[in-house]
Amino acid sequence: MGVMAREETRTPTSTTARTPGTSAAPSPSRSGAAGAWRIRLLVAGIVLAAVNLRPAITSLGALLEEVRDGLGMSGTVAGLLTSVPPLCFAVFGVTAPRLARRFGAGAVVCAGMAAIGTGLLVRPYAGGTAAFLATSALALMGIAVSNVLMPVIVKRWFPDRVGSMTGLYSMALALGTATAAAVTVPVTDALGGDWRSGLAVWAGLAAAAVLPWLAFARERGAAPAGRAPARDGEEPAPDGRTLAEAPPLRITRSRTAWALAVFFGLQATAAYITMGWMAQIYRDAGVPAGAAGLLLAVTMVMGVPLAFVIPRLAARLPHQGPIVIVLGVSGLAGYAGLYFAPAAGALLWAVLLGVANCAFPLALTMVGMRARTSGGVAQLSAFAQSTGYLISIPGPLLVGVLYQHSGGWGLPLALMAGLMIPQTVVGVLAGRDRTVEDETTR
Fold it and tell me: Tell me: the pLDDT tens digits for 346-371?
């Protein structure tokens, strides 16, 4: 069985030994009702944070035509706009482990939620394309650091429930993604048809997510009451030192890390093309704007149940390759349907692409499975996500260029389908039962 499967069944052991750089274990007085309350608050914080990790993107996708008209964007510039999320995730995501070591993971996530709320509130009214891009980048910066730290927080505080907790926040992420896609157009209509109000309304959701993280903003590496303390993770390094004292992994020497980074990048390419352009594909095929938004929502909402099921299933398999193959075949079928009959089979293609998009929670689960310690997970998560998002940057932009110069969706859809093949290959390689610690110490 894989590393995750063993973690799902073991019971974490607490240690009271005090090592330099760590705090003493929680006293029994903190382990009762107060500790249980803090655990529940942390779970609520994780769920609320996850819900806010995609509305900034899918709400824009639902109103992309209105934003383009309002700001005078060309198709190429709109493609650039849909490439901003992976660029920000690559640039800012790599800083997350360092920020977490300095300020604490809770403080960084709390600041990330505040940045999301501020960016979403300001960007519709900033004026001009450049200002819109800059304020979008502020919101995406908050998303980037939170993206990287979610697997780390789960590994650190829930080492015995990595699969189920990953499923929970992946499900919440998918729910937030789908909700924003589904209701942005109706909410905009209810607010008088102004796209600016329709985008700004999502700032309130991010503001709500700040609140539970305030309770953890001053904790540096401390686990909630009732769990063993650790600065970078619960598990000691092989030589007995704490992970805070252990040398960093040479992550670039790991073939598994590279395979996971490329898999992450290709699935992100597909996801951001879908979130940025899928509604427009349907609208160009004659589907009304509201219905196109709902079809995008169907694609996103498929991830709600599957994002909970897939991590738990993956945690119990010695090799995640079969899941990767099923998701890849679904993506190929969905893109073929959009090419040949975008309106006639619209709902079916939305469902198939929704299944394919569940490569994201699978990738997050494999991040937790391919490293033994939370320190290793932090490095692997930062490397895989930052490198992966760099890989994904050209995709949405290239789709915009191909769409503008070809005058249709044939070439862009052929590109999307073609990328599913290497995604499946590297996903199978990343799904092998091994850890980056083993590969970097050989």
Answer: 999 999 999 999 998 899 889 888 88
Q: What is the dihedral of CA 157, 160, 164, 170, to 10 degrees?
A: 40
pLDDT in tens, 118-127: 999 999 998 8
Provide the token pair at 231. Answer: 């600065």
Please say whether the beta carbons of 59 and 198 come within 8 A.
Answer: yes
Which residue carries 């999307």 as its tokens? 416
pTM for the whole structure: 0.70
SS3 193: coil
Q: Two tokens at 418?
A: 């073609």
Q: Determine the angle formed by the axes of helices 410-430 and 359-369, rounding to 10 degrees.
A: 20
SS3 at position 223: coil
H and E: helices and strands count for the chain = 21, 0
Angle, helix 255-284 to helix 374-392, in steps of 10 degrees? 40
How far apart CA 113 and CA 203 sit, in angstroms, is 10
Picking from 303, 255, 278, 273, the residue whose alpha carbon sits closest to that of residue 394 is 273
C-alpha 256/C-alpha 54 separation (Å) is 27
Q: Which residue has the tokens 């119990």?
A: 316
Whose tokens are 């994002």? That residue is 307
Distance CA 420, CA 55 (A): 25
Question: Residue 434 class from Cβ within 10 Å (0-12 exposed, 13-18 middle, 19+ buried)?
Answer: middle
Q: Is 12 left (phi over 0), alpha (psi -120 to 50) or beta?
A: beta
* Residue 142 token pair: 């908050």
Q: Are 433 and 318 in contact (CB under 8 A)?
A: yes
Residue 209 pLDDT: 94
pLDDT in tens, 307-358: 778 888 888 888 999 999 999 999 999 999 999 999 999 999 999 999 999 9
Unique residue bearing structure tokens 């996971």: 260
